[in-house]
Amino acid sequence: MLVEPPFVSSNQWNKNFVASQRVLKLICCDAGYVMQPLFAAFKHIIITSGTLSLDLYPKLLQFHPLVAKSICIDRNSHLCPVVVSRGNDQGRMTVTNAMEVPDTKPSSSLSAKSDVKLSSKYTLRANNQVAVSYGSLLVEMARVVPDGIICFFTSYSHISNPFLIWNRCLFLCEWDAHGVIRDIYNYKLLYIESRDINESNVAVQNYRKSCDEGKGAVLLCVVRGHISEGVHFNDHYGRCCILMGVPFLNTLSKELNQKCEYLRYQYDVDKNDYQICDAIRQSAQCVGRTIRNKNDYSFVIFADYRYDLVDHSSRLPEWIQQQLPPAHHNLSVEMAVITARTFFKKMARHDADTQPRTLTVETLPRYIYERGLYSV
């Protein structure tokens, strides 16, 4: 239970009036209460997921699993994740005239300092070099990626309408000032998710139409938003997925602090571990928006240097970790572009390695035996 003070106070109001404006909030700090009726009604329960943590969620749901195992049925060669932790290795950030850029180098007119780390940390949000580096990454991906690009941000404040006075836009203002939006329109159309569900549905519909009839589009979304929760981008609608930052919850939220304090006292769950697990789970869920069937392939970019940390990368699902070799860590924007070119050229060929596996009655026993599911 949380009691919030009145949003607006004045010296002219008496104390009784101010006290009547307080808000009483009920917070569900223990998700195990929801699961207890299920555990009591059924003898055997199987919980499957592609994003949940095996060590944390049994504590949160108050049960002791008899069998807890992470199974990756098959290596998905159609997924190519990389971690981009810095901008282009091109010296200081400059903005050049688009007419002066030679035709032999069709890259973006932006260049960023190589020593600036890409991150969505609160202390770096006001750094315009970080914003421009993210913009340079998106422009380069729009130049080399076919069809659709899904770009996830950590907050609506990054992609709010910069032309509204009461909105404090963090990225779009810098992108508009440095010509990033102009450069994106040279390659693809741009659509932005809104807080309004109807406007977001219209943006998704137009995005799909652009991918069907044109050279593709870019859709800017928000983690934990309407699009990331229930919209699928299969086939050519999601050839590239970019996560610009680690989607941590607001650490200043009173509801979050109350819940973390309860979990620490009741189940000895550290606040930092809970926030990291939740952020990585949300990131994996966004990646799953682009891989919906066996024919899908997608190039995934984790654009934040914190994804290189052990406590972050080790919590990624196994189906992502298997495709994330050490060579794909700590990349710059240029190195990510080269990796993307190689990946899409490989997927364009109809080789046996790039074709989805088809299991038949004859091949199924051999398939199970190779993975050690049972011994003959």
Task: Give an overview of the whole structure.
Helix 7 links the parallel strand 7 and strand 8. The strands form 3 sheets. This protein has a 6-stranded parallel β-sheet, sandwiched between helices. A two-stranded antiparallel sheet has the order 1-2. It has a two-stranded antiparallel sheet with strand order 4-5. It contains 14 helices and 10 strands. The chain has helices spanning 15-19, 32-41, 57-61, 128-144, 172-177, 180-185, 197-213, 226-230, 254-267, 271-288, 310-313, 318-321, 333-348, 364-370; strands at 2-4, 23-25, 79-83, 94-95, 110-111, 149-153, 189-192, 217-222, 240-244, 298-302. Mean pLDDT is 80; it is low at 9-13, 90-109 and 162-167. The longest helix is centred in the C-terminal third of the chain and has 18 residues, at 271-288. 36% of the residues lie in helices and 11% in strands. The chain is of the alpha/beta class. The N and C termini lie far apart (57 Å). Helix 4 runs parallel beside helix 13. It has a domain at 79-89 and 115-348: P-loop containing nucleotide triphosphate hydrolases (Rossmann fold), CATH 3.40.50.300. The chain is globular and about 55 Å long. GO terms for molecular function: ATP binding; damaged DNA binding; DNA helicase activity; hydrolase activity, acting on acid anhydrides, in phosphorus-containing anhydrides. InterPro entries: ATP-dep_Helicase_C, DinG/Rad3-like, P-loop_NTPase, RAD3/XPD. Residues 167-309 form the ATP-dependent helicase C-terminal domain. This is ATP-dependent helicase C-terminal domain-containing protein.
